[in-house]
Amino acid sequence: MRILITIFFMLLSINVYAVTLEGINVFGEMYTKEDLSRNPSVEVINRKKIDKLSPSSTLDLLSYAAGLQIKSYSKVSSTISMGGFVGDKAAFNNVILVNGRQVNPVDMSSFDINSIPVEMIERVEIYYGPNSVLFGDRATGGAINIITRKPVRSGGYLKAEGGSYDTSEYFAQGTFSGERFSLLFNADKYRTDGYRDNGEYYKESFSGETTYYGEKFDIGVNGLYIDKEYGLPGGLSEIDIKQFGRQHSNSPDDGSDDYEWLIGGNAKLYTGYGNFILDVSQYKRHRDTNWVSYSMNRKDEIESFSVDPSYIYTIENNGYSNKLIAGYSNKNTDLEVFTSNSELNREKESFYLSDTVNIHKTVLETGYRYSKIEDDYKDIDKRKDYDADAYFVKIGYELGKNNFIYIKYDKSFRFPTTDEINEFGGLNSEIEEQTNKTYEIGFKREHDSYHFDALVYKQESNDEIFTNPDYTFMGTEPANTNLDTKKTVFLARFGLNRKNAVFDVAYTYTDSEIDEDPWKGNTVPLVSKHTVKTNIGYRFENGFGMYYFYRYFSEFYQGNDYDNAAGKVDDYSISDVKISYNFGNIEAYLKINNIFDEEYSNYVIYSDFSGSSYYPAAERNYLAGVKVTF
Q: Could you report the per-residue pLDDT of 234-244, keeping only the tens digit for each?
């Protein structure tokens, strides 16, 4: 069957011509204006908007995105929720990419998105809804692609920032751009004591890239090194909060000392028969984590090597266009836990085809991906293999000059992480890969003065991977299990296109239910049904700017409360304000976060043994800084 599907897409690409992975930054390529004009499921936060928001970190930047819910339990550990997946597993249902390279770890740890300094970012592309064809395993809820700044001109950039909780950041960037050669270097130093006791986070990072531009080829090399130390303040009970306050920590000595690096290279060959691209990267992360409060220590190391060749062929002719992409991906990852003498290897292979045909006002997109993983658990001499396929069909139509409507069917998948397979009690033989079937409709209007996007989709998740509430440390039940769920998601965004003004508002409705006994009909924990986000501001001709940012999240059930019996966490809203002054190439700004001093926790976990555990978020705090471009 897979061979027949593959042949079908190959024939389609030959007879009807070509596709759009190039546009979607599979390897960091520019998402074209034409693609954006008909894709309401993509939100782009560009550099101009980032400067107006003045976020304190990359995670803070993502909190302003329309359809994202952020659940934070420490400065370095946060869950980004997209599409209503169960809260404590939400991070494993979206893909995080940096310049098109997937950075999600193979285990249950999460990529520290704050490792990427916000000043390094040129734009962020957020893809709402499932799309495993384009992004592979885990793209069941969506994908986030962080595109870093490129050396488009020679110059430099400096930033100094400070604020509450003894927070400071110093960032420097230098660039050289010639006719054939470009070079970029970044250095960043960040520190904060954090809102809570033992909430400190110290980070230093260095990165750079260089590219040679030939007449028919480009060759580039890039690298990133990050060193960080941070505390792990842990959760608080209601009694703890009443007795000691919201900033207290019951684990004042818990923390971790990590470093990680990424180095990569890419080559692009431009021919009359299409473009050939090769991307190669190697990644390493070392962690030394101490849970002193539990008398536990874990030292582990992840090292991976990826090879991703692809081919892009484009045809444009008198109202007809076609883009084809064919690609192969191989990622080999070693995970070694030194403190438990365990070692495993995961090899993941994928091939994919995608095709977009545009005939006058009608657009047809189709795609297919096949992936397999092979896990070798060396310390217990056991293997575990999975394979899955994904595909989608999308038909769209241009309604006049500025309107576009489409319908889409998508099948996506997620493989279990290594920790969900190799649990404390041994290999979980019952855990299955997760598959999702989605029916989606979307509309976009792009006008010179405003834009409006809307999409709605219904999704059936078969064997969604959950934490097993019946698991006990000494019991026989596995720690992870599969449950069927169903979801309805509606997202609408409206904004004005003005040079000196910011006005955009977004609303997201997420209805996520368990669809299997014994919790059939119950709401998935840690998911707010309603969210509203608004950004308003204006920069006057004299250089002064004033901005207001608002975020609202409705109530939600506590993590692990599949019975919906522990009570909901109250809804909350956050308001930030900013004033700025621009004089030539200098900007100075003051930002007050959570100006109304809202007391809230966006992450609360429940267990029958210990009850509710809260992770309080920061109250009112201040941030001020200066940026210089030269």
A: 999 999 999 99
Evaluated on CA atoms 162, 111, 311, 321, the torsion sign reads negative
* pTM for this prediction: 0.91
Query: What is the distance between the terminal CA atoms of the chain, rounded to a whole angstrom?
Result: 58
**What are 184's strand-pairing partners?**
175, 209
What is the spatial distance between Cα 38 and Cα 36, in angstroms, rounded to a whole number? 5
Question: What is the C-alpha to C-alpha distance for residues 506 and 511, in angstroms, rounded to an integer?
Answer: 17
Alpha-carbon span 26 to 13, nearest angstrom: 19
Asked if pLDDT for residue 422 goes beyond 90, the answer is no
Residue 307: is its pLDDT beyond 80?
yes
| pLDDT for the residue 73 | 79
How many CA atoms lie within 13 Å of 259's alpha carbon, on the beta-carbon side?
6
Per-residue pLDDT at 433? 95
Query: Can you tell me the mean pLDDT for 254-268?
Result: 95
**pLDDT grade for 75, boundaries at 50, 70 and 90:** confident
Q: Spell out a b/e string for 290-315, using b for 16 or more CB atoms within 10 Å of the CB, else e.
A: bbeeeeeeeebbbebebebebbbbbe
Q: Which long-range contacts (CB under 8 A, 24 or more apart) does 450-454 make?
A: 450/494, 450/495, 450/496, 450/497, 451/493, 451/494, 451/495, 451/497, 452/492, 452/493, 452/494, 453/40, 453/43, 453/491, 453/492, 453/493, 453/494, 454/40, 454/490, 454/491, 454/492, 454/493
Q: Which of 589, 583, 499 is nearest to 542 (CA)?
A: 583
User: Minimal CA–CA distance to 411: which of 375, 454, 457?
Assistant: 457
- Token digits of residue 294: 């539990």
Q: What are the angstrom distances between the C-alpha of 141 and each of 131, 169, 419?
A: 8, 33, 20
Spatial distance between the Cα atoms of 625 and 173, rounded to a whole number of angstroms: 16
Does the pLDDT at position 498 exceed 60? yes
**Which pLDDT score, from 0 to 100, does residue 427 have?**
85
Average pLDDT of the chain is 90
Sort 522 into a burial class: Cβ within 10 Å, 0-12 / 13-18 / 19+.
Answer: middle
- In DSSP notation, 312-350 reads EEEEEETTEEEEEEEEEEEEEEEEEETTTTEEEEEEEEE
Neighbours of 381 (CB within 10 A): 7
Residues constituting the chain: 630
Q: Is the pLDDT of residue 419 over 60?
A: yes
Compute the distance between CA of residue 411 and CA of residue 566 in angstroms, rounded to an integer.
34
Tell me the β-bridge partners of 31.
none
Q: Are 119 and 431 in contact (CB under 8 A)?
A: no
Are the beta carbons of 529 and 511 closer than 8 angstroms? Answer: yes
Helix, strand or coil for residue 299? strand
Burial of 177 (0-12, 13-18, 19+ CB in 10 A): middle
Write a three-state SS string for 107-120.
Answer: CCCCCCHHHCCHHH
**Token pair recorded at residue 301:** 């190391």
Cβ proximity of 348 and 330 under 8 Å? yes
Q: Show the tokens assigned to 381.
A: 């001499």
Name the nearest CA neighbour of 123 among 41, 175, 50: 50
With beta carbons less than 8 A apart as the criterion, state whether 56 and 353 touch: no
